[in-house]
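Standup notes, protein team

Yesterday: finished cleaning the Isoptericola haloaureus set.
Today: Trypsin-like peptidase domain-containing protein structure.
Blockers: none.

Input for Trypsin-like peptidase domain-containing protein:
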Amino acid sequence: MHDDELFDVEADVPEAFSAVAPTRDAAEDDLLATENVVGVGLGYKITGGVQTDKPSVMVLVEQKLPPELLSGKPVPKTIGGKPTDLMEVGVLQAGGDAEPAAEVGVQKLGTRVRPARPGYSVGHLKVTAGTLGAGAYDLRSTVPGKPPRYYALSNNHVLANSNDATIGDPIIQPGAFDGGTFPADVIGRLTRYVPIRFDGTTNLVDAAIAEIPFDTIDRDIYWTGYPQSLVTAAQVGMVLKKTGRTTHFTTGRVTALNATVNVNYGGGKVAKFGRQIVTTDMSAGGDSGSLVLDLQNNPVGLLFAGSSAATILNPIAYVQRLLGVRVWP
């Protein structure tokens, strides 16, 4: 795939949803202003727990509530003649705090490992811990050629402390929550991040990179393997996989595309993200930054938020283009 196609692969709405997409777009603002609604996307209507083949406006809600418990109007069953469907996702959080190691049933890839390996704990000094998603290098490096720099890829809120960091800040592996310290566990320095806007305008990614010596970063994702392409567009129903610091190897299924979601960052800060990928629950606190791939190891998204019912991914095309890096070949 040519680099200039990075945006295009995610920009087109799948043909199956082309008739519903304009209705979704026109209704987005009104739906997001509706009580209990935290997101709007495109998906196949789910009836009796079974996914049908009926394209619908997928409305993400904190809870499915009977109309009498809502102070305002409920989400209509159709909008502009197109069906809607409610998906209960709870409160969407950006990563959240890393899970305590002693919590029953929670595993963690929180040990020190060199070279630093994707899937393991990483973070800014002032962050608890997230996940090192992938090794990367400059997008415009020629192939074949000699990349001048190498990077660790993760989220802004993992490597740049949700904008509250300075370029050049040390990045440690493992993260501070897992015992990482300065200077013993420094693997690199914060190089670039996409600022997160909390002013109601739409974000595309929560992403950052740290420059890291070539001999200190691996590209082989623990228990997952090497990325096999630059990017693959998500499809509703697609099965995905990831390895992350807290829940290790997990799989999930795409339930909605082209989603606009409101994500909580703590301290009353909420950020709106557009064109996101929604999956079934496949993560927990500390998994933020995981690279999510399809079953053939093609990169699809960068995990950054979720709840106990759903996981939210930035399309990896936007991540690579906005940071100016590539994860393959």
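Follow-up from PR in the comments: The CA atoms of residues 128 and 223 lie 23 Å apart.
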